[in-house]
Recover the amino acids of this structure.
């Protein structure tokens, strides 16, 4: 009788059984969590696999020029509004903040905005049956300004013109990243993480940044 009590007290047969059940339940819970995490959110994002991961978040009806071109142009305007619009707003501040403080608070948002442009360019590459990774690797940051910001909605155009080739746009994006001290590869990763989360929550087809 005494031995039985001591066994239970020190984690004997009864205690071990309870411990095993707890461990089993915990393991099951952890594995379920890992299983429910979107694969794209767990996979390492690289320049090589970016196009594949990006297109994995693209709705079937959006894989067309009618979507790709206006989407690309709108993402350019959104990103520049976030960056340049933010710089303009600094003029209205009361002197308690500066550009460095402002940027540090919005760095992640800017990464995501630039990532959206990269995503749109990956879609363009997909439609043109070209390699995003090859184009990305073969371009350097532009040394001088010369990128003409596109605007799609002109009556005399059919809406499917690219205006500026992919390599020029990637080159300009790389220069923007360099000026802001952001890694272009970080923008690619931020983009996939954001879209994978939205996809898992069924919010890809929604509207707005806060999804």
């Amino acid at each position: 009788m005494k031995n039985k009590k001591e066994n239970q007290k020190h984690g004997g047969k009864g205690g071990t059984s309870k411990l095993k059940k707890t461990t089993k339940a915990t393991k099951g819970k952890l594995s379920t969590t890992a299983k429910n995490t979107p694969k794209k959110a767990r996979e390492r994002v690289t320049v090589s696999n970016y196009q594949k991961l990006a297109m994995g978040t693209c709705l079937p009806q959006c894989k067309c020029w009618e979507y790709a071109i206006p989407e690309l142009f709108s993402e350019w305007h959104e990103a520049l509004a976030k960056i340049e619009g933010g710089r303009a707003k600094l003029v209205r501040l009361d002197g308690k903040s500066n550009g460095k403080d402002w940027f540090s608070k919005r760095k992640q948002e800017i990464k995501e905005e630039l990532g959206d442009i990269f995503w749109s360019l990956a879609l363009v590459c997909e439609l043109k049956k070209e390699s995003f990774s090859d184009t990305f690797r073969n371009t350097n940051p532009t040394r001088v300004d010369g990128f003409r910001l596109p605007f799609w909605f002109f009556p005399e155009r059919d809406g499917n013109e690219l205006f500026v080739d992919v390599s020029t746009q990637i080159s300009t994006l790389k220069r923007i990243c360099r000026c802001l001290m952001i890694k272009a590869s970080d923008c690619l990763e931020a983009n996939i993480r954001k879209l994978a989360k939205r996809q898992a929550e069924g919010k890809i087809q929604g509207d707005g940044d806060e999804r």
Q: What stands out?
A: Confidence is low (pLDDT under 50) at residues 4-38. Residues 142 and 171 are 6 Å apart (CA to CA).
